[in-house]
Structure formats: C-alpha cells, structure tokens
Amino acid sequence: MITAKRNLVMKRIIPLLIATMVSAPIAMAADTMIFPSINGNVTFNHKGHTDFLKDCKNCHDKTPGKIANFGKDYAHKTCKGCHEVRGRGPTRCGLCHRK
After folding, report:
1. Domains, the chain, ranges and CATH?
2. pTM for the full model?
3. Which of 21, 29, 30, 76 places its Cα 20 to 30 Å from the Cα of 44?
C-alpha cells in the first residue's frame, strides 16, 4: 500500500520537477538589460527576445547563463546578423547605441 502511494506521488512530482527545471531559466532572466558602450548604451529587451525566439540556444551556448565571449564583435555578428536575416530589429548603429 505504501509503495503504491509512493509511486503515485513520484509520478506526479517528477513531471512537475522537470517542468520547473525547464521553465526556471526563462522566469529568472531579466526583462531588460543595459550594456554600456562608448558609442552609447545598448538597451536589450531580453523578455521580448525570449518570447519571440523561444529557444535560449539561439543566443546562449549554455542555458541559463551569460554568453561566452560576449562583446562588440559577438553582438555585431550575432545580434545584428540575426536582425538582418529575420528582417526585424535594429541594424544601424544609432538604433542600438543611444546616447
């Protein structure tokens, strides 16, 4: 009897635990981030990107976490490149870098 109850509880807890682990990185991510730049700060709407792209691995090599080697070269290649390919988002300097 105890084993049957334990199995029932485990069948309910394990899927809930898995769902929590999958959705936690998105829930914990900041909505808006500001990256300082000598050409003007870049404001990045993280929530907007996660809602649109759905997959963190479009930008992150590991989830969750900071982007390895993030900087000017990465942003210009990856972020601007994605905007150009998708035809959405800023692609000119002054549209990202605001003074």
Report:
1. 29-98 (3.90.10.10)
2. 0.62
3. 21
